[in-house]
Amino acid sequence: MLAIDKEGIDVARFYNSIGVSAFVLKYRVPARKDVPGLPKWWAALQDAQRAISLVRKGARTGTWGTSINASKIGFAGFSAGGHLTGHVSVTKQRIYSPVPGVADLTSPRPDISIFGYPWYLLPDNTPPKWGEPYALSPEFEASIDSTHPRSLFIHNEDDPTAPVQGNK
Known about the structure:
- This protein is α/β, with parallel strands linked by helices.
- It has helices at 5-17, 42-61, 80-90, 138-141, and strands spanning 74-78, 112-116, 150-154.
- A three-stranded parallel sheet has the order 1-2-3, with helices on one face.
- The longest helix is centred in the first third of the chain and has 20 residues, at 42-61.
- The radius of gyration is 16 Å and the shape is globular.
């Protein structure tokens, strides 16, 4: 289900109302054909990386005015968008061939990440039984290190789809 109004446009309007420049990305959903050498969420990740690079380039060139700091570009996502936030935050290399002269020479990784009730951060999207150790889904577990963007997690404890226990 696409919730671009409440999880996109409404959020961007709120940020704008408090003086934060915000953009809304309508990305390609992960249900696409597999491409050898790329993860199953390749299209959404490419869209997120390109969007971050475009905003960063626009901030450096003044396209978006003078209020955006190119070294403080954030990415926020809710539910499946929270999952995408995880991928764009841990992926250090662009997963598509850069286009010279466009925005692809700037970093495709956010400086700040906001995870809104992120979906599927845990293996099988299931928290461990009481007393068992936590593990993130394999695509995240090995990728989180000291270079990970500063992050904020927003969650409800009664969310049955994206368990709050997924935010360790």
